[in-house]
Design goal:
Elements (H helix, E strand, L loop, with lengths): L1 H19 L12 H4 L13 H8 L7 E9 L29 E4 L16 E5 L7 E8 L7 E5 L9 E10 L1
Parallel strand pairs: 1-5, 2-4
Antiparallel strand pairs: 1-6, 2-5, 3-4, 3-6
Protein name: 3D domain-containing protein
Organism: Pontibacter anaerobius
Amino acid sequence: MFRVKVLAAVFYVVIALAEELSFFKADSPATKVENQLQQPPLEWPPLETEELAAEATSTPEPPTTLTVTASIYHPEPGQTDASPYITADGSRINKKDPKKHRWIAVSRDLHSRWGGQMEFGDSLWVTGISEELDGLYIVRDIMNRRMRKKIDILVGRQDPIMGRWDNVQIARLD
């Protein structure tokens, strides 16, 4: 075993010495293929027709926004159902820090099951609440059937956030 280690060490020393003395050339003496081909550089994305070119330069449509009322909810039986740490889509809520998920519940009129546009797992951009609460959320829960055009933001009992906000803008991201 010792002989193998010594032989390997000697081999690595010889290779290092050969590299230092430039026995191994990094450049090949062959002519470079890049110099032989004189083609114009490719564009990305490849534009094959004028219709595609016009389509690529047009600005994308902004996502449609909805104006809703927003509030917060805590994962506890008084504000949810009998299983407060499991959302309507089956996701499990972190008991120690529910706010870190950035999940929301939407009213049934906004969910696709009842004729709305949103589904579980959709990403929503929320603005109009506060700097701390505005941002990206994921739809994971459904609200009681008496609620209309409303979202609930999941926060923990220990989070110092309370309130109800009108004229909150939400936009579904594709």
